[in-house]
Amino acid sequence: MRQALLDWFDVNARSFPWRTPGPRDAYAVLVAEALLQQTQAARAVPAFERFVARFPTPQSLAEAPSSDVLAQWQGLGYYQRALRLRACASALLQRHGGAVPTDVAALEALPGIGRYGARAIAAQAFGRDVVAVDANVRRVGARVLALEAPDDLAIERGLEALLCRAAAPRERGVSVTEALIELGATVCTPRAPACSRCPLLPTCAGRGAPESFPGRREVRTRRREVMRPLVARRGACVALRRRPRSGRWPGLWGFPVAAVGEAPGGRSLAGFEHVVTHRTLEVRPRIVAAQHLSGELAWLPVRQVAAGGGDHPVAAIDRRLAERLLDLWSSRREHDEAAA
Ligand code: SF4
User: Fold this and answer.
1) C-alpha to C-alpha distance for 106 and 90, rounded to whole angstroms
2) What is the mean pLDDT of the chain?
3) pTM for this one?
């Protein structure tokens, strides 16, 4: 099975900038893993290239201001990941002289890496014979082993027993984990897996009824939450406030938000929905006078906010609101000019 899987991967691996032939840059693999946690591979490619061009080493990342790191992360969401990646780079400098450790336990002890990340980095950067269970590997493992609703540990152990025997020849740097991730992404897909093209078909226990494994998961319903951003305008500029370092969109700039139960006054604007992890936000913006806003504010051109905020990076939700304001204000100006 191991040989069939690795042979298949040799021919069918998609090319990604972090999948370089020969020895890999382990720091680049680590950055790619952080990006891929919540972002699809195709979308992660330009972000990866931008990020490693700006921060080519752990040292350059550790020493960068957090606003710079957040600006490079723009559009990817889950901004805590960017800050954790920076904390991880600092730990690499302090504990490992700026190098990525090859050992799974040392990797797992780094901030924000976790069990999956440590195993995925060890496998992909150093060709270690360990299985890392992400959603793709979970599905392939459940099918190959015919396990219903298994936990990640059962899959990890089952696949390692099958594919990662210590005696197996280390014939190439490519890891079993990387091949399994690729197989799950391109062949053993959630619906209608292409079993006839699968290198594991002869030994797969779930073939014949692949979609029965790993069984149905509980569907999590998205909770709804109302959010009331406040728009204060001065000419072409709007007021933004920096968000706290903990909570949603940490450290990013955004429109000030009315607290629950607060009556901010002003005039309401057309709302919209914005989906974040497990939640749908009902965004109900209001135009208010600047004197209603307390605390430190930054006045930025709305066009700059709609483009991501530049040196004041903003989250996607604030970018969307700024785009709407731009549309609204420019169509109103056209309307006023036409009327004049
Ligand atoms: S044979 Fe089918 S079910 Fe089994 S691993 Fe391959 S694609 Fe998945």
Assistant:
1) 14
2) 88
3) 0.72
Contact of 293 with 230, CB cutoff 8 Å:
yes
33 noted as active-site residue? yes
Same domain for 264 and 206, yes or no, is no
Non-local (6+) Cβ contacts of 1 within 8 A are 162, 163, 200, 203
Show the tokens assigned to 53: 């061009």
Give yes or no for residue 142 CB within 6 A of ligand 1.
Answer: no
Q: Which secondary structure element, helix H or strand E, spans residue 310, and what is its range? A: none
Is 24 within 8 Å of 189 (Cβ atoms)? Answer: no
Q: Give yes or no for residue 195 CB within 6 A of ligand 1.
A: yes
Over residues 175-215, the pLDDT tens digits come to 899 999 999 999 999 999 999 999 999 999 999 899 989 88
Asked if the structure places residue 130 within a domain, the reply is yes
- On whether both 47 and 117 belong to a single domain, the answer is yes
Domain count, the chain: 2
Residue 217 is assigned to a structural domain of this protein? no
Residue (of 187, 182, 135, 144) closest to 163 by Cα position: 144
The verdict on residue 218 lying in a domain is no
Give 130 Cα–ligand 1 centroid separation in angstroms.
Answer: 20
